[in-house]
Amino acid sequence: MVHVLRFLGASRQAVIVFAVLFALGPLGSGTVAHADGGAVDARIERVWPHDRQGNYASVAAAPQVNVEVYLFQWGTLNPVSCTFANPVTLRWAQNWTSHVGLPTVGSPRGGGGLLPAYDDYLQNPDGTKLNGVLGQEVTRTVNGVTFPTWVFNDVPVEPAVQVGGTVTTYFLTEVGGVDYRTSVWAHGVDQRTLVPQPVIPEGVASATPSAIDSFISIVWPHDRQGRPASVTSAPLANVAVDLAVHPSDMEHSRWTSVSLGVGRTVQLYQSLDNGFLEPVPIQPKVIDESQTWGPVPGIWPRYEFDDVDVSAAQDPANTYYFAAYVNGITTHPTIWAHGATAQTNFPRPDLPVANGAGC
Domain spans of the chain? Predict the structure, then answer.
């Protein structure tokens, strides 16, 4: 179903966060994108919440959103050409607290959970899987500049008033056939990540999987002496990552961890507010975690990145975003927001500075 996007005016009332995520090359490639010829920046510029009749609705109540994406030549505000034919796909991760009914990896004890991006856990009303939406290219002219945009209409989101808790949906863009980096847009009433208990796997894989779900299970802020500290006083944090075989059995909150000998580099990425997510220059410690499943004990790896700089979050206006990827393996990451409020003002769209070629 295609509607005309209605972004101006009412959209500025939405409580939303615009953060930026550095994409690891084409989706699932496991390699960092480079500024080679043809590389692009995909910027999510607008997210407009609405009801099923297309009328503006609050973030808390809206069951759907319309999303608009601009593509720029890497590192510039020069738009791609109007003949750019590569597929542009919208993907999402989710973060939820204190509600039931959403099939996601969460603590068996309840209280919250994270849903990986690029996944097919969401469903259409008819029960079919929904793992992304292809964009429709639309040519726009703004301030005399003509350029292509990609629009995604009637994208389903989880309204907080419907699930009885808080849900944040993190949108990001995949551009096929080229190296790219993408922004992430956090859409929700309360964008802080609140997961009181890490997930306990119910088994360990015997072989290295071809695809992995990466879960940031713990972000523990502390002072420089290693003592616990609040978000607004902690200069450092330890970040723990668990890796699950994809897909997991989401309906029963069960998942299977990778083995201790996965033999791949796990890389943590971090962004501040609207900045690009950069690799954190810290090698993780691999900790052997254990749990007994019935009569059989199980041991799985947890990747801990210690003393990550989070000092800018001492200012409540700032928020860090974390994601983890496994080099060489298709990775479906969760996103963790670390900040006192995890909210920023509605950003101004990044308008192109020149006409797109062929427009």
Answer: 10-338
